[in-house]
Amino acid sequence: MEFKAQATAPFIKDNWGIEVPVDKSERRFDVAVFSKDKHKLWLIETNYYGGGGSKLKAVAGEFTELSQFITKSTDDVNFVWVTDGQGWKTAHLPLAEAFGHITHVFNLDMLKQGYLHDLFR
Known about the structure:
By secondary structure, the protein is α/β, with parallel strands linked by helices. It has a single domain (2-119), classed as Trna Endonuclease, Chain: A, domain 1 (3-Layer(aba) Sandwich), CATH 3.40.1350. It has helices at 9-16, 54-70, 92-101, 108-112, 115-119, and strands at 2-8, 28-35, 40-48, 76-84, 104-106. A five-stranded mixed β-sheet has the order 1-2-3-4-5. Strand 2 (28-35) and strand 3 form a beta hairpin. Helix 2 (54-70) runs parallel beside helix 3. The chain is globular and about 40 Å long.
């Protein structure tokens, strides 16, 4: 497994030979994890919300669209959203909608339980 923090689509194409469709020309993913054996890529975005508000709703919508955009790749590209925080207690609907569209949504407790490790197997 290889990884790159703040990975861009050009970096991924040049180093791992995987085409990543992006919604913004300067899109940087928090982390990209690449399995050479499986020729599989996981693009990870992370955030934590201490309070509620419109930002949570906007990010949930943005990442839902981004996930759908990324999965159009002809390569094996997967989107992972790691999010947590008290803010989600007041924003159930946007999070529930995101769960309906994003295959891999994890919180910090799920990471402690090994969900990400299992995903990379």
